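To: structure desk
From: M.T.
Subject: fold request, one chain
Message: Could you run this one when you get a chance? Sequence is below, nothing fancy, just the single chain.
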Amino acid sequence: MTDATEYDVVVLGAGPVGENVADRTRAAGLSTAVVESELVGGECSYWACIPSKALLRPVIARADARRVPGLSQSVQGPLDAHAVLAHRDYYASHWKDDGQVGWLDSIGVDLYRGHGRLYGTKMVAVTSPDGEHHVLTARHVVVVATGSRAVLPTLPGLDTITPWTSREATSAQQAPGRLVIVGGGVVGVEMATVWQALGSQVTMLVRGDGLLPKMEPFAGSLVAEALAEAGADVRTGVSVASVERGADGITVTLEDGGSVTADEILFATGRAPRTDDIGLDTVGLEPGSWLSVDDSCRVDGSNWLYAVGDVNHRVLLTHQGKYQARVAGAAIAARAQQVPLLETDRWGAHAATADHDAVPQVVFTDPEVASAGRTLAEAEAAGLRVRAVDYDLSSVSGAGLYADGYRGHARMIVDLDREIVVGATFVGPGVGELLHSATVAIAGEVPIERLWHAVPAFPTISEVWLRLLETYRG
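Reply: Done. Structure tokens follow.
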């Protein structure tokens, strides 16, 4: 290996999370290097958030337009699949990372391409694609921001097919004639929405009793209803026993003895941390494990190792990972400069409190699902004394103007002891843009009596806030 090169901070992984850590530490005056084995910009930029939303946007726009009088008759034809995929390719930068590499260079962060592994305390060994070796040492910290990967189940016959994961589903160059999707979480329902609209016959195979199991039950029910109306075959309470590729495609055999035939099969069945080959064993940690951290994202039991984003398993969402990166960057800089952290300040710059209390998420299906904070089940499991307040979104004036035949539902979870909102879920067209108001109310712990004075504009879908508050007061 070459002689070691020293930096204040070394970051493993140049996805959105690693980029944000590097940005924050570099802005604080700390020399920073980033190691990346694939594309700078990571999963989100090329195989997840960005390409999936580029695919979904035309689908949702058409669905909205079909509900507007005077416009609906103009958008009854099929989507131009070629144009939709070209739109996706553009937003995925045609899977080239020149722009993001240039950004790293512009902020003074050194990029090392190749596979990085911890090499003992505060040391990282990098093997570049051409076999060159580098050793990087950190004066202060090493940050693990390597993200997560899709998990494939252990099934008989899996080695006879080339299954899709989220990567293939978001980067495919044509719509398969028949697509089976195993799993009913966010990836499953979003990809069902996309490929059904682009011409695939979609069959969803879901082990549980509904879609979107981590959200309020009505969310999954409304999405399942809409997918079925669009032509998808949504089956719940079923499990896959085996798969096999034959002359007619992929035969998926179910545990109940039934079968489905497909041209492609997408497994959307969970994620695992990309920590199996990054040298965790050299610092006393278990390879392939999720890394437990405190609220500053410092790995438990360490004073020099941080884990930010998916790898710490707190919240597997890009925006929360970037939030953690800002928190970690501030904490790393403060500790490097020997500035005392206010460990008791739960809403301070050095604590990722929102990961516990105010996580927002949007599922870009038709209808959209938007949630922040806790579900009713989560609040009750946490021991809170709460009340769920429900309202039919179709009764809101702005919803009816937004779309003919608007269908949707809203729920607000109120902590009765503190008289604050601790959770909110909205389902319906256009509700994603409602969500930040809920996030602010939850993160800010705004008292119900004060929310009365946040007057929603008329006639907008946001008027649902007034209706929820009126329902709560009775």
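Reply (cont.): Residues 66 and 73 are 7 Å apart (CA to CA). Let me know if you need anything else for the meeting.
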